[in-house]
Every structure is written in structure tokens, then in C-alpha cells.
Amino acid sequence: MAELKIGEISKPRFEFRSFGQCFCEAHKRMARLSVPVPEKVWERESDEIYIISRKNDINNTKIRNGKMDIKTYVQTVDGLEQWNPLMKGEFPISRAVLENEVFPAFMVEMPALDKDEYTYDEFMAMVKANPDLAAVRVHKQRFGYMVNNTICEVGNVLINGAKIVTINSESTEIEDIKKTIADCGLEGVENINYLQAIKRVIGMSDKPLANE
To answer: For residue range 72-87, what is the model confidence (pLDDT) as tens digits?
Structure first.
């Protein structure tokens, strides 16, 4: 089996991810079990904007460094989610892309589009004008590991300034993820994605955050 490489594009991966206030013991085990990883993934920080739609749970839209990235949910196998890239775009963004890809992914009413292209600020104004959409600031501080040939991380995440912690394991191989979950003491921990976690934190979903 070809080894999974961090930072390289491969076939769609399955993912376990959870969110809560503390995964201290699991983090300790993950760090000890990890093989050495490239220095560039030891610790990474990023600022992103997630566009959250009240009417959609299957398309995950985020903007980082002026680029928009939409992933779409494919399937759940053995409790692990698989997501595929749906769209990548840059600002200014064309009306055609907004009409055919972006707003259909949000599953909300199409705004009136009368220009050929739109800047980031113009796009954000359309998002803020729609009561079913929310632009959420997300800051990530991520620590990368590799356990059982799965790409793992523990991250400190600020969602509109509210701090939570995330832990994950992802791979193309489901059995490797399951072994990592067991080895890190994460069996029985709720598996949810960024979309769901953000909705819970901002109150768009009335479910409590996992593992509180």
C-alpha cells in the first residue's frame, strides 16, 4: 500500500474528527504514538472564513487567503465521513461561478447578480444580507502527527473568538483510522465535522458541542 503523505493530494480520504474543550489524554497518546512528521506540519496557524448555511449540511465552504474552497459530503462508512472537493475559486469571482456553483452549494435563494464578477467584499455583503447564511471567523492552531499511517492533528480553534479543541485522524484506509481511534483512547467519542461544530457554537444548531 502506498504511504499517505501529509500535504499531498490523494484519493478522497475518510475522516474521524471531534470537538470539545479538552482532549489532553488523547493528545498525549497521539503525540507519543506518532512517527516523525515534516517540520512544516509540527505547528501551523491559519485564519479562515467559513460560510455556514442554515439549509445545508453537505457542502463545506471556507475562504482562506482570498481563495474559496468547497468540499461536498460523499458518504459515511463505519461512522467515518468522506468528503470530495467540489469547487476551488479566487476573488474576484465570476457571476457564472456564483450562479452555478457557490449559491447552489449553500441551497439558499439566489441573490440578484448584475455584474460579471464580484470582489471578496461584495460577496461577503451578499452573505451578510441573507438571513440563512453566516460568515464565521475561524482561527486554527494545528499540531500535526502521523499514527498508524493516518494523518492526525490536534488543534486549538477559535470560532468567532470562542475557543474549542479539535482532534482528528484521516486516511484512505478505514481500518487504520479505527486502530488510531482505539490507540488514542477516542472510542465512543462523537465524530462531527467543522460544519456541525460551527453551527453548534454559533447557535444555528441547538445540539450541544460534543464532549462538553
So the answer is: 999 999 999 999 999 9
2-20 pLDDT, tens digit each: 455 555 555 778 999 999 9
- The answer to whether the CB of 139 falls within 8 A of the CB of 158 is yes
User: What angle (nearest 5°) sits at the alpha carbon of residue 53, between those of residues 9 and 201?
Assistant: 90
Enumerate residue ranges in the chain where pLDDT < 50: 1-2
The grid cell for 173 is 484506509
Distance CA 7, CA 64 (A): 16
Pairing type for strands 150-159 and 162-171 reads antiparallel
HSE-CB at 21 with a 13 A cutoff on CA atoms is 3
Domains of the chain by range and CATH?
14-202 (2.40.320.10)
